[in-house]
Amino acid sequence: MTAARYRNHPLWWAFALHRASGLALALFLPFHFVVLAQALTAPEALDGFLALTANPMVKLAEFGLVLGLALHMFGGLRLLALEWLPWSGRQKTLAAGAAALSFLTGTAFLLQAI
To answer: Is-annotated flag, keyword Hydrolase (predicted)?
Structure first.
């Protein structure tokens, strides 16, 4: 199989989504910790930042964050299944199920936030 054919395989896309969501979460965490530190050092600055969370664009970004977290979590569960369970033809189904559960989780969060 050529490299281009591998990239059309659903399990390659599951890997790519898992890797991208992990990188996005790793980039988000330092920003998150800085904002949380404001609660200890500058509560008024934190209050000003929290006022921004009513913005619809922030809610959309939160949807992306929850979607990324769900993608990474369910993708990790898929990887654990690959490592610990015997190989079967159901791997594509597990990957599709992980993506579907991630999207449903993110959408439920978005609907709750609106």
So the answer is: no
